[in-house]
Specification:
The structure holds 2 protein chains of 2 kinds. Chain A folds into 2 domains: about 80 residues, Gyrase A, domain 2, CATH 3.30.1360; about 150 residues, Beta Barrel (Cyclophilin), CATH 2.40.100. Helices cover about 25% and strands about 30% of the residues of chain A. Chain B is mainly beta. Chain B has 2 domains: about 170 residues, no CATH class; about 130 residues, Cyclophilin (Beta Barrel), CATH 2.40.100. Chain B is about 15% helix and about 35% strand. Classes of the chains: A alpha+beta, B mainly beta. Chains A and B meet through β2, β3 and β4 of A and β16, β20 and α4 of B.
Chain lengths: ~250, ~350
């Protein structure tokens, strides 16, 4: 992590605040902190923000605040970050049916790791994963912190269609596809949740800096949740993390 | 409320407004028009709010049949629009009635044309916008480009179109279209990832827009731009007009349908005031980049916004001026050149 953030110019209507040059939970926490601080400050020129692994893109209206003025305001906010009390990140529970039709590569992950199916499921669902960034597709989370024992190379030939809700592993990363998509991840399970629904308010429940926790479920539970999601009666389990639990 | 039917869809015709910038943080692409200047002029001419959705057509426009009255305006690249086979002017409001058919030739210059309709296009607002996002398949008409026999509802706002005055834009406000463009850029955010030589190459070279150019981005051909050490960065956010340089050194300008994040170095960003001009660039056009400061870029944008804010007062009424004075000798013609109309009068001396 840099001692002081770097402020990079991204054209006449945006700045990038860069906090470091690595991927780490500490830098991610800084990005989230700054995101929330800017959001709370309600800067009149603010248009929108995009928090990523190690930086925060701030889009602004230069007809309201010029570059120098905005830079000064952001630097002031940065220096007050330590004294701000920020809400704890959220955990979103993702009920997941491991193996079977939705997880055709679970067997390969076992073979590759030398672990049993039960062990892979237990390790994969043991702790919440930090969302470093959303990108690639609506609601697609880049997750960190997978147990090294589950590391598995990508498929040699990517699939042309991965069904939405698929949970997979690619190298050191785990994640899930909110929508149908092509991709080369090893698929180990599927969730009946809709992580992205353009007609829902909000369309995407999880944000950068929040956590996803996979909860193993059986087939009967999968069907029950699937029906509730379709009927729009499913209660998504999204709650604030216990203080300090993310560290 | 009226409707229109798509007789032929054109090459790529979509409903677009200013997109969904606020959902970038959720991985949702922004979308929106490629040429905001043309969009705003078109909306102004039909009495809409400047950001209302319009149809954006690439290179070849659609043929549309009106099922009811409307007031429309066509702006953007140079093209010859026709109403029932008769030439009509661009950059001007036009009254259309039940059964009228609007059609287009191929664009002669520029890349995209815009059609605004009084009272707007009635497609659902999805995540705060009517813009079509082709990749995520949302917005516009079922998240896709127009097809033959589609029907679109217009003017859900119920504007009384028979009372709308007709205007044209003064000539000096109609952008010139060139196939050699100078784009002003502000360096950054990763200009420090390039050698001095690389920056010089970028700022002195001539780059050609390739066929692999679309609403997502323009791939350019030209001298490779040299990195210091590698072209990859930890993925971060991308703004419209960002000039990304991947490992092969050939720049890609990221536009309306760009991904929200990317892992390549970005050498510079095209200034907002030059984005409309870039949105009209087509394959084969040549681009030079010129560096200006962020302060200068912001002055340019301010000037453009002031110009647009006062445009309403500069519109020229056309309907009252249309019939020629009865005592004028000679004959009057309307001549079209590159989609713009000129009044010509001929008389014997």
């Amino acid at each position: 992590m840099y001692k002081k953030a770097r402020y990079l110019i991204a054209g006449d209507s945006a700045l990038v605040i860069e906090f470091g040059n690595q991927i780490s939970p500490e830098i991610s926490a800084r990005v989230r902190g700054m995101f929330l601080a800017v959001e709370q400050a309600k800067l009149p020129a603010l248009v929108t923000m995009n928090p990523t692994y190690r930086s925060l893109l701030v889009e602004y209206d230069p007809c309201k605040s010029g570059y120098e003025e905005l830079l000064r305001e952001l630097q002031q906010l940065e220096s007050s970050l330590g004294s701000l009390s920020l809400p704890e990140p959220n955990i979103l529970e993702v009920p997941t049916l491991y193996g079977g039709e939705g997880g055709p590569d679970l067997g390969f992950v076992c073979e590759n790791s030398g672990l049993s199916e039960e062990q892979v499921i237990e390790i994969h669902s043991a702790k919440p994963y930090l969302i470093y960034m959303l990108g690639f597709a609506p609601g697609f989370p880049y997750l960190g912190g997978m147990d090294e024992r589950l590391e598995t190379p990508r498929l040699k030939t990517p699939r042309t269609k991965i069904p939405g809700g698929s949970v997979g592993i690619a190298g050191k990363q785990t994640g899930l596809y909110p929508n149908d998509s092509p991709g080369g991840w090893q698929l180990i399970g599927r969730t009946p949740l809709k992580l992205y629904d353009p007609m829902r308010e909000p369309p995407i429940l999880h944000r950068t800096g929040d956590y996803l926790k996979f909860i193993p479920i059986d087939e009967a539970e999968y069907r029950r949740i699937e029906e509730a999601v379709a009927a729009e009666s499913y209660q998504y389990r999204l709650y604030a993390m216990e203080r300090g639990a993310g560290q | 409320m009226s409707r229109l039917k798509v007789v032929t869809p054109g090459l790529l015709t979509t409903a677009q407004d200013v997109g969904r910038p606020k959902f970038q943080q959720s991985g949702m692409g922004v979308s929106g028009v490629m040429d905001r200047y043309s969009q705003r002029c078109a909306n102004l001419l039909v009495g809409n709010a400047p950001d209302e959705a319009v149809l954006e057509a690439t290179l070849l426009g659609p043929a549309l049949e009106f099922r009811g009255e409307s007031v429309i305006a066509i702006t953007g690249g140079a093209v010859q629009p026709q109403l029932n086979g008769q030439p009509v002017a661009m950059w001007q409001s036009l009254r259309v009635k039940q059964g009228d058919i609007l059609s287009f030739t191929m664009l002669q210059k520029g890349c995209r044309l815009y059609i605004a309709f009084a009272g707007g296009i009635d497609v659902p607002v999805v995540m705060g916008s009517k813009s079509t996002n082709l990749k995520a398949r949302v917005g516009g008409l079922d998240g896709r480009a127009l097809r033959k026999d589609d029907e679109l509802s217009l003017n859900a706002a119920g504007v009384d179109v028979s009372k709308l005055p007709l205007y044209r834009l003064p000539q000096e406000l109609i952008p010139e279209l060139r196939s050699e463009l100078e784009l002003r850029v502000v360096l950054g955010p990763q200009d420090d990832a390039f050698t001095r030589q690389g920056l010089d190459t970028f700022l002195s070279g001539v780059y050609t827009v390739t066929q692999e150019s679309d609403r997502m981005g323009y791939r350019l051909e030209g001298e490779a731009i040299e990195h210091r050490q590698g072209s990859d960065i930890i993925s971060d956010g991308i703004v419209m007009g960002a000039v990304q340089v991947p490992g092969n050194g050939k720049p890609i300008i990221l536009l309306a349908d760009r991904q929200t994040t990317g892992g390549y170095t970005k050498i510079a960003t095209v200034i907002s005031a030059d984005l409309p001009k870039l949105g009209q660039a087509r394959p084969g056009d040549q681009i030079r980049f010129r560096e200006i400061s962020v302060q200068e870029a912001q002055s340019c944008l301010n000037a453009m916004e002031r110009q647009i804010a006062t445009m309403q007062q500069q519109l020229i009424a056309v309907e009252s001026a249309a019939p020629p004075p009865p005592d004028e000798p000679g004959r009057r013609f309307v001549v079209w050149v590159d989609g713009q109309s000129f009044d010509v009068s001929v008389q014997e001396l």
